[in-house]
Amino acid sequence: MTRYTGMTALALLSGLAAASGCRRSGDDEIEQIGAAVGEMMSSLDESSQDGTTTAALLPGLPVQRTPAALRGPLWRRALDLALPPAYAGTCAASHFSSCDAGARTRTFADCSLGVATLDGSVALAFSSSPLCVLATAGQSVTRTANFTLTGLYGGALTVTSPGGGQTLTKTATGFEYTVGGMERVLKGAAGRTLADVTTTTTEPIVISGSSRADLVIVSGALQVTHHLAGYAVTLRPEDLAWSSRCTCAVSGSLSGTVSGGKHDGKSASMTLRGCGAAEVTIAGETSEITLERCTAI
Fold first, then answer.
1. Which residues is 51 bridged to in the sheet?
2. Neighbours of 23 (CB within 10 A)
3. How many separate domains does the chain show?
4. What pLDDT shows up at residue 54?
5. How far apart are CA 106 and CA 90, in angstroms?
6. How many CB atoms lie within 10 A of CB 48?
7. Cis ω before 130 (30° cut-off from 0)
8. Does residue 16 sit within a domain?
């Protein structure tokens, strides 16, 4: 089992230079699949809070944690832990524009996010135009993204909405969530593509409840396609339940079967182990991961 966590810097620094080239390609693969599911849950959460106003509908920062591949080599990360540098975080100062004909946009202009730099935008389009509300059954909001997170030591994560983004529709008993298409492309400092993952819903995600206190994903299907590895997996949720203190579900699981690639026909699953923590199992190999967009509140 692989564990993705921070390190006790001084204790491990001497061994990190030798280990820096040993990261498996499958690690990035599994992390990005987990990140795609975390993106789905967090975006759903952002759009479902308080159905009568727009203030709570607006997504926060589109990335809460910098992916490991953008944090520099292991020896550099250990050194930063031992001698922490001062990093200003200016992205939090950006805000969504006022409602304009049912649209709001949040722009990030090379602002700092920890050790990384964020550039691009996130847009919301409301069906209730000219208002920006999600108050009655049938009203919807579509979220699209086009931004790049660049690491301090090189590398970049680019998130786009080639299939139309994510749409949340209010229903009589909760919400229905669809993903027309989102893509995450992760590149290393040398420009090599480490992961290229797209997500779509093949069946609408059905959610009961109205706030974090009672949100539960009860059915649906999310297809995650890993283009470099040449496979796709369609994950079906099983009782993904939120808590009032997290921006994502904290319990439940998703499961499915891999189609294509070296694991064709093998099972895949993801089990939530708390806020921002999960286990991903593909073909019997389990890794513990951190969901970068899921945070305690």
1. none
2. 16
3. 1
4. 41
5. 14
6. 24
7. yes
8. no
Which residues form the domain of 159?
A: 24-290
Please identify which residue in the block is written with the tokens 């000219």: 130
CA dihedral 279→235→45→211, nearest 10 degrees, is: -100
Q: How many CB atoms lie within 10 A of CB 43?
A: 24
Distance from C-alpha of 181 to C-alpha of 179, rounded to nearest angstrom: 5
Model pLDDT, residue 94: 81
Note the Cα 192 to chain centre separation in Å. Answer: 21
The series of mean pLDDT values per 10 residues for the chain, 297 residues long, is 39 34 53 80 72 41 55 43 47 85 91 86 92 90 91 87 91 92 90 91 92 90 92 93 91 94 91 94 88 83
Instruction: Answer yes or no: are the C-beta atoms of 56 and 29 closer than 8 Å.
Output: no
Q: From CA 170, how far away is CA 211, in angstroms rounded?
A: 12
CA distance 239 to 113: 33
Number of H helices, E strands in the chain: 3, 13
Is 9 domain-assigned? Answer: no
Q: Scanning the structure block, which residue is given the tokens 């950006």?
A: 94
User: Which is nearest to 153 in space by CA: 187, 107, 193?
Assistant: 187
In a domain, 103, yes or no: yes
